[in-house]
Amino acid sequence: MTDTRTDTDLIIAGGGLAGATLALALARVVPELRVTVVETFPLSPDALPEDYQPSYDARSTALAWGSRLIFDSLGLWEVLAEHATPIHHIHVSDRGRFGATRLHARDHGQAALGYVADNRWMGLSLMRALLDTPVSWQAPAEVTGMTPMPGGVCVEIRKGDEHYSLTGQCLVVADGGRSGLREQLGFVTRTEDYGQNALIANVSTSDAHGFTAFERFTEAGPMALLPHGSPVTAENQSALVWTLTDSALEQVLALSDDQRCQALQERFGWRLGRFTRIGECHHYPLKLTTVDEAVRPGVALVGNAAHALHPVAGQGFNLALRGLMTLVEQFRRAVDEGMPLGHLSILGEYQRLHRQDWQQTVQFSDSLIRVFGQSLPPLAAARDAGLVGLDLVPGAKRWFARKAMGTGGRKPFVPRADCSKEPARNDQ
C-alpha cells in the first residue's frame, strides 16, 4: 500500500552527474514539480564538505562549449569554472603520418572550444545548488522495481532493511551504463565490443600544454590528452585517456610509474616534452552501448543508461546533457498542457528530438575509432589526406569544430542563456 505522504511527481533513479543535473534543471525550469532522487550511495545535499581540496588523481569530464551554455543557463557555470580548465586549441594527428588538423577557439569567436572539469567538484557544486531547491532525496536507497498504474508508476524502493513504495507520474532511469534497473525493466540494449580498454590517469609533462587538447591516433589505438589541473599545475598537467588492448593493458599495469611514462612517451611522442609523472590509473573495457527504444509509458532512460560511447572523442556526457535538457523541455510542455509526465506523447517526443542527436554523435565517435583504428597503408594514406583537407577547407573545419563544441546538432533547450560573463580563470 502506498503511503500518500511519499507521493511525488517524478522519481529519478540515480543521483550522479546526470541525475543531479536533471534534478537541478527541473527545479529551475519546472519548479511546480515534486522531484525525488533515489541514490545508492550516501549522497545528499544535507551532508556536504564545507571546503574542497583538488586532488592530483581527480577524475574529470570533457565539457563542450554547448555544455557550458547549458550550465550557464542553470546558474551553475560560474562555480564550475573554479575547477575547470579551458580548451583553447584542439590538435588531431595520426602517429607516424604527416596529416593533422588544428582548431582554435579564437577562429570561431569563442572564449574556449570546451573545458575539462573535475568530476568531484561538479558533483559537489550540483549538490550545493540543490540545497536551495525543494528536491527530496532517498539516499542511500535503491529502486528495486516498478509497476505501471493508471496515470503513472508505483516504484519499489529498498532503504537498508526497509522496503516501501513511492508513486509518481514518471520514473527516469539515470543510474549509469551498468544500469541493472534498465535490464530489470526489460529495456533491450545493443552492445558492440571494441576489444579495447580505456586507461584513465592524470599526467604531468615538462612542457606546458598551452590549453591544447590532443587527439592522437596510433596503430595501437587512439589516445587523448586534455588540459587539466589546479591553478598552480594547470599548464603542465593533462588528463589522459589511453586506449589499449587486453594484453597491452596487462603489460602497462605491470610497469612501474617511470616505465609507464616511458611507454606513454613512445606512443604519444614529444609534443608536450617529457612525461614526468603519471597518477593513479583506472581502466575499463570499451563498448558502444545503445538502446533503440529509450522510453515507454511512465519510464525514460537518460545518460549512460541510454547510450555509452567511446571516451576518446569526449562526447559522452555532453550528449547526455543535451538529452537531459530535451527531457526537461518536454516535462515543461506536459505541465503547461496539463498532461501526465509519463504520457507516451511526452516521452516519445523527447526520444524523437534526442534520437537524431545521439545517432549523429554515435556515428561521429564510432567512425573516428574505426577509421583511425585501421593500420592498412591505403587507409592510412586516406586518413592523412582527410586530416590535411580538414585543416585546409574552411567549411569542413567549421563542421568539425561544431561537432567538437557540441553545437552541430539541434540547439539544446536552455531556459536562460546568459554568457556575458566569462569564466573565472584561464579564459584569457
Automatic annotation (TrEMBL):
What parts of the sequence cross the membrane? Answer: none
Its recorded name reads 2-octaprenyl-6-methoxyphenyl hydroxylase
- Similarity section: Belongs to the UbiH/COQ6 family.
Q: Which cofactor does it need?
A: FAD
For whether the record's keyword set contains Oxidoreductase, the answer is yes
Quote the InterPro entries the UniProt record gives. FAD-bd (IPR002938), FAD/NAD-bd_sf (IPR036188), UbiH/COQ6 (IPR010971), UbiH/COQ6_monooxygenase (IPR051205)
Pathway info: Cofactor biosynthesis; ubiquinone biosynthesis
